[in-house]
Amino acid sequence: MKIATFNVNGITSRLPHVLEWLEREKPEVACLQELKAPDKGFPIDAIHDAGYGAVWSGQASWNGVAILSRGEDPVESRRSLPGDAKDIHSRYIEALAHGVLVGCLYLPNGNPRPGPKFDYKLAWFERLIAYAKPLFDTGYPVVLAGDYNVVPTDDDIYDPKNWRRDALLQPETRDAYTRLLDQGWTDALRAMHPDAHIYTFWDYFRQHWPRDRGLRIDHLLLSADLASRLKNAGVDRWVRDLPKASDHAPTWVELRDPAQARPRR
C-alpha cells in the first residue's frame, strides 16, 4: 500500500498536476495541503473521475487539507486539531482509509519570527504533540502526514547557514518535532534513507530547483504497527519539474500488507 503527502500550493491551479500524478503513481491514500480554496471550490468531480473518494476542509485563499482514498470514500473522524476552539484555520483533517487512520496536517510556517505567527506555530505544535500521544498509544495503524514546516536537522537542508533565522530551523521548532518522535513515531523517509540528502521542497528563488537546493519539510510519521511494515519511501521529484509546479514534490511511503493471523487448530 502506498500513502503519499503533497502540498499542492493551490488545488485549482495545480489540478492537472494532481490528476497526472494520481494516474501515474496511483497511491492508495493521498494527503493534500494548501488547497487555497473554500469547501465548495474543491474539485470533487474530477477527483471522483480519477477513481478517488475524498474528505476535505477548505479555506478561501489560504490553508486547506484533504485526504483522498483510491476506490473508496474515506471515513472522516476529525476535521480540526483539538485544544483551541478559536483556531479556525483549516490545517488538520483525519479519516480512516484502507484500514489506516490518516491524519493530514499543514503545520503553520511561523515566519516572521519572533512574533505572533511564530508563537502560533509553537502553540499549534504543542496541540499536535498532546493529541498524537494517545493516538499512538492506541496501537492502531496511524500515519500523520503532511507539510510540517520543520527542517529536522542540518542534513535536511542544502545550506543551513542562509536559513538560521527562519522559523523552520529554530531550536524550539526542532525540539517540538523531536518530542513528537520521542512518543514512538517513525520518520519514514529518514528511516528508509538515513544518510541521504533528500528534499521535498524547493522554493521559487535563485534557481533553487534546477540547482537542487532544497529542504525536507514534508514528513510521514508512522505508528509502531505501520513502521514494522515499512517497505520503501521516496519523493516523486518529476512532479516538481512540471511547468508551473508547486514548490513541493509528493512524498510517499510503501507498506507491506499486514501479517495474516494464523488460524487456530
Q: Strand order within the widest sheet?
A: 3-4-2-1-12-11
> How far is the first residue's CA from the last residue's CA?
30 Å
The CATH architecture designation is: 4-Layer Sandwich
Oligomer: single chain
Radius of gyration: 18 Å
What's the CATH H-level superfamily name? Endonuclease/exonuclease/phosphatase
Mean pLDDT: 96
User: Please, how many helices?
Assistant: 7
How many beta strands in the DSSP annotation? Answer: 12
CATH topology: Deoxyribonuclease I, Chain A
Order of helices and strands: EHEHEEEEEHEHEHEHEHE
Question: How many structural domains does the protein architecture include?
Answer: 1
The general outline is globular
Q: What would you call the structural class?
A: alpha+beta
CATH C-level class is Alpha Beta
Approximate strand percentage: 15-25%
Poorly predicted tracts of residues: 260-265
DSSP helix fraction:
25-40%
Major sheet characteristics: 6 strands, mixed
Family: Belongs to the DNA repair enzymes AP/ExoA family.
Domain Endonuclease/exonuclease/phosphatase: 4-248
Site (Interaction with DNA substrate): 248
Site (Transition state stabilizer): 149
